[in-house]
Specification:
Blueprint: H1 3-33, H2 49-54, H3 56-69, H4 81-106, H5 114-144, E1 150-155, H6 159-170, E2 176-182, E3 199-201, H7 206-213, E4 217-221, H8 225-237, E5 241-245, E6 253-258, E7 261-266, H9 273-308, E8 314-320, E9 326-332, H10 357-364, H11 372-377, E10 382-384, H12 391-400, E11 413-415, H13 430-442, H14 446-461
Parallel strand pairs: 1-2, 1-4, 2-3, 4-5, 10-11
Antiparallel strand pairs: 6-7, 8-9
Length: about 475
């Protein structure tokens, strides 16, 4: 996002927040003291809104400080940007309410009805969420129209560098205008870039190229230490947006200060134990009611398979879950009995001839996945997580895909972040699937799971990319 564009919308956010705080306290006051206007509640003549109006400057200041502290004026990017923004709003409102409660405790004359504060907080949460999502949608729309975008260049031409360019082209709402690459070699291009690849020149001329192209954002991938130092220094001196990716570093890192010496640390655990407990509880809360509600449908499908094709109605297959443990993965059988007589099949394309008539329907609608709710109940799987692989494919990927085993930090899932970003296509792209899986693990939250579940239901209803 262009710096002037960012400043304008930051000021716009502050102004709307000030108005929303006033409206929220008016609503809180009305809900507590003035509902008798509508024939509800009792008259409270001693409660005067002017008392709140006199200290509104303090209230505004305390809440704006809380909003800034919790990151409400940051600009979030990426697929979970909205989730992060809603989370920052929630924490900002809670912190603002606590600040005012503490202030009213220190200064007894300060009007601080707890009910007014709670009602105002709830009102603010709703109004701020609507406001921020509307602003985010407006910003995304303007970026798609080419307004306020940073002119971006990619230094390097590796597969990862090309995927960065692909994302910039695919998601203009992130606020970047793809201009081309700076690279010393002609790369083997990934399919989406075959018509979009532009080589602006070699690395030795990067400063001239960036000035000529009026570049304001730089993405780089796996440069030598010398090249990285030169590029970083140039970007810092010229105030350019700079982001660097290195395959040598896990995403699961943190920065640490040792007496003014910056150090990079690696976390020993990708997924904290408290997160495992929360995730397990959320799995049970979802799985138990879903099993009860869907049991008549599962019985109907079970009988339908038994009556229309020979063989077992339940298909069991060994899969790999958390920490490399094997388990029996359950599905309603959709394939013919001899569909894998020549060995396991990796490709998910052209499988219609291998399915039964009923099997094609339940596979197309994802109803064949329902028995996996029992895997979740037994603790072998989660509702959301990386899709568990078969041992034979897992061993193959371990040899050819770096860091493949890191996806085993959590239990396999019925659906996942990789699946809703290309459910069928990613089967033959393990490296890209791994990146989605690790992104999910590193950014896990209950809100993220809810978003994935919602998108999964949308994909299923649209019958999108199931095979």
């Amino acid at each position: 996002m262009d710096s002037n564009f960012r400043r304008f919308f930051t000021c716009f956010k502050v102004i709307t927040d000030i108005l929303i705080i006033i409206i929220a306290f008016c609503l809180g006051y009305i809900l507590k003291f003035k509902l008798y206007w509508f024939g509800i509640g009792e008259i409270t003549p001693s409660a005067n809104f002017p008392d709140y109006w006199e200290v509104m400057l303090y209230i505004e200041s305390l809440w704006l400080i809380a909003f800034a502290y919790t990151g409400m004026y940051r600009y979030y990017q990426g697929p979970v940007a909205r989730v992060r923004e809603i989370a920052s709003i929630t924490f900002g409102v809670i912190l603002g309410v606590l600040e005012i409660m503490a202030f009213s405790f220190l200064y007894p004359t300060f009007p601080g009805s707890r009910y007014v504060l709670v009602y105002a907080g709830m009102s603010a949460l709703v109004l701020l969420s609507v406001s921020r999502l509307s602003i985010a949608s407006l910003i995304a729309y303007l970026h798609k129209k080419g307004r306020g975008n940073k002119r971006a260049v990619i230094v390097g031409s590796s597969q990862t560098a090309q995927r960065i360019a692909e994302k910039l082209l695919q998601y203009p709402e992130y606020g970047f205008q793809y201009c081309g690459f700076i690279t010393d070699r002609k790369p083997q291009l990934i399919h989406p870039l075959k018509k979009k690849f532009v080589n602006l020149g070699k690395f030795k001329d990067f400063a001239k190229i960036m000035r000529r192209q009026k570049i304001t954002a730089v993405f780089a991938d796996d440069l030598s230490a010398e090249k990285l130092a030169l590029l970083a220094e140039f970007c810092q001196k010229n105030g350019l947006y700079f982001r660097y990716h290195s395959e040598a570093l896990s995403k699961n890192i943190f920065w640490e200060d040792l007496d003014a010496i910056d150090l990079i640390g690696l976390k020993t655990q990708r997924f904290r134990e408290v997160n495992r407990i929360i995730k397990r509880l959320s799995d049970l809360v979802l799985a138990v009611p879903l099993i009860i509600v869907s049991s008549p449908l599962m019985l109907f499908i079970y009988l339908g398979i038994k009556l229309t094709s020979p063989g077992s109605a339940i298909y069991r297959q060994t899969r790999i879950t958390r920490d490399g443990k094997e388990f029996q993965f359950l599905k309603f059988r959709s394939m013919r009995q001899d569909s894998e007589k020549n060995g396991p099949v990796l490709s998910t394309k052209d499988q219609k001839h291998r399915t039964t008539r009923l099997g094609y329907f339940i596979r197309k609608t994802s109803l064949d996945e329902l028995p996996q709710l029992f895997n979740v109940l037994k603790g072998e799987m989660s509702i959301i997580g990386p899709r568990p692989e078969r041992p034979i494919f897992h061993k193959q990927y371990l040899k050819k895909v770096p860091r493949w085993d890191e996806r085993l930090a959590v239990k396999g899932g019925i659906t996942g972040w990789a699946q809703i970003n290309g459910r069928a296509e990613l089967t033959a792209l393990p490296q890209e699937k791994l990146e989605y899986d690790l992104y999910y693990i590193d950014n896990w939250s209950i809100l993220f799971d809810i978003m994935i579940l919602t998108k999964t239901l949308t994909h299923v209803l649209q019958r999108k990319d199931v095979f």
